[in-house]
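User: Here's a structure from my thesis project, written as structure tokens. My advisor, Dr. K., wants to see whether a designed sequence matches the one we expressed. Can you design one independently, without my sequence as a hint?
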């Protein structure tokens, strides 16, 4: 008997970049019954949450765009967060995704019962779905540094991803803890506005000079008149970023050496004072931590009202930050640009697979997934930008688009009636994880630095192969790795 095709109901969790994409692509493939649950009251994910001064994407905007929604109107090579947020809102609206979203509904539980997912939200709503796509983000849950005395600070303090726009900054004394991408962008944006700016650096960063020119009206008119020129630009950017992505997985690669030389040159040429230059010079290989792209960080940190504090923080006091040399750095505002808890993924959702198996238990040590997308015994559940995926300095949109197309092929097995449930085998998942960990030894992330890429064992929790290989693997699922019921 020929298999019976089925109408499927899909739930997407999260209406950020990947959730919007998933909803659009599900409907394009003919799955009309789609609901998106979004805990906030707007789409945009990371671009809705991160509103700190200076926020921009360090992936060029013409690459950080959906392939099906190129945007001739980007204002800059690296457009700012507000413009990116507006882009996602517009795409969601133009594709009717906003009609599918239940805002203010946080999924709190998802359990696989009798062949389908049963879902609960924070408002007590109950729903069910044949398939669930989790687009819950990677860098989502802020990590607030555990520094003694933090609560005693009498000025304003907040995390970079929870910017308090009520707090005045102009003409005040502002301190920022951290030197990641967020802190560096904040530094450039704030230094001219504040009376005094202190950047508390625990670890120096390699910074690559990345100019950010504005697109002229002529450029934008051409992008409008000749849409193929936008496609060509995106393709060219994709090729150059793929080259970068390919180089970081080989610590010895000549491309990485060229990047290191460019960072070194940036430091030598743009930091005049030899003492400051040495304090800004990292002691590890460029690319080991996520590379910082900035047009003007060195310029900003050399302004007369800026201070780079490299003495370790001893504690926070009511008036400011006390460093181990005994100095009290008096502040009105303290920003914690201290990064994110990067191992959360679906959690804190209570996810229950077959036979009552809890994802919290399965991931008790650390999160793993087959090809970062799916988990044994959690059928018909697919993650976008899930554990150990490609998260180097390149477009996560491109990653998510490849993943969605891969996932749709798995979903098609269910829709066509070839199976009712699909999940990766434990053997395939274990083999993939073992190969991944072995391959990670060759990457630049393992060359001796601390970074959010590293898991509790010091193994990079990322895709350790080339981006080209990722494209190949995502082209078509190897059904031999899956269990179909
Ligand atoms: P991050 O890269 O994890 O940086 C956190 C910073 O806080 C580090 O400098 C860290 O120092 C410091 N820190 C943490 N705890 C500390 C403590 N107790 N005392 C002193 N310093 C402490 O976080 P992020 O800057 O928010 O960036 C996270 C990621 O978000 C980036 O790597 C990137 O993937 C993404 N992002 C992207 C963009 C973009 O333009 N596309 C912009 C912002 C963020 P150590 O280095 O010593 O650990």
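Assistant: Designed independently from the structure alone:
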């Amino acid at each position: 008997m020929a298999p019976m095709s089925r109408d499927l109901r899909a739930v997407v969790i999260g209406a950020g970049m990947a959730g919007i994409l998933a909803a659009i692509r599900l409907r394009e493939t003919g799955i009309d019954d789609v609901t998106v649950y979004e805990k906030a009251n707007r789409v945009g994910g990371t671009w809705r949450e991160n509103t700190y001064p200076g926020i921009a994407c360090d992936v060029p905007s013409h690459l950080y765009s959906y392939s099906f929604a190129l945007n001739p109107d980007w204002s800059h090579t690296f457009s700012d967060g507000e413009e990116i947020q507006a882009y996602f809102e517009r795409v969601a609206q133009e594709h009717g995704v906003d009609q599918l979203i239940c805002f203010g509904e946080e999924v709190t539980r998802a359990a696989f019962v009798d062949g389908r997912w049963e879902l609960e939200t924070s408002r007590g709503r109950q729903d069910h779905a044949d398939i669930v796509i989790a687009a819950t983000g990677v860098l989502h849950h802020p990590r607030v540094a555990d520094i003694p005395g933090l609560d005693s600070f009498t000025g304003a303090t907040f995390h970079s991803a929870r910017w308090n726009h009520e707090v005045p900054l102009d003409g005040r004394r502002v301190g920022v803890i951290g030197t990641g991408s967020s802190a560096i962008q904040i530094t450039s944006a704030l230094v001219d506005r504040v009376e005094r700016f202190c950047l508390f650096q625990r670890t120096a960063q390699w910074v690559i000079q990345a100019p950010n020119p504005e697109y002229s009206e002529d450029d934008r008119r051409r992008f409008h008149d000749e849409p193929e020129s936008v496609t060509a630009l995106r393709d060219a950017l994709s090729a150059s970023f793929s080259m970068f992505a390919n180089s970081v997985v080989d610590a010895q690669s000549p491309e990485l050496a060229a990047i290191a030389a460019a960072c070194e040159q940036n430091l030598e040429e743009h930091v005049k004072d030899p003492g400051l230059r040495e304090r800004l010079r990292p002691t590890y290989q460029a690319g080991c931590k996520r590379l910082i792209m900035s047009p003007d960080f060195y310029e900003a940190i050399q302004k007369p009202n800026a201070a780079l504090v490299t003495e370790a923080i001893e504690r926070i006091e009511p008036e400011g930050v006390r460093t181990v040399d005994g100095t009290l750095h008096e502040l009105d505002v303290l920003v914690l640009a201290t990064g994110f808890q990067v191992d959360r993924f679906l959690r804190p959702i209570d996810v229950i697979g077959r036979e009552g198996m809890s994802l919290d238990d399965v991931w008790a040590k650390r999160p793993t997934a087959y090809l970062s997308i799916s988990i044994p015994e959690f059928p018909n559940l697919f993650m976008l930008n899930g554990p150990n995926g490609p998260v180097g300095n390149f477009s996560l949109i491109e990653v998510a688009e490849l993943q969605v197309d891969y996932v749709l092929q798995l979903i098609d097995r269910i829709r066509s009636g070839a199976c009712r449930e699909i999940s990766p085998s434990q053997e395939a998942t274990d083999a993939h994880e073992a190969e991944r960990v072995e391959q990670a030894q060759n990457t630049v992330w393992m060359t001796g630095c601390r970074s959010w890429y590293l898991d509790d064992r010091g193994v990079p929790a990322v895709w350790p192969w080339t981006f080209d290989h990722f494209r190949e693997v995502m082209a078509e699922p190897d059904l031999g790795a899956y269990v179909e019921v």
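When you compare it with your expressed construct, this may help: The first helix runs from residue 17 to 28.
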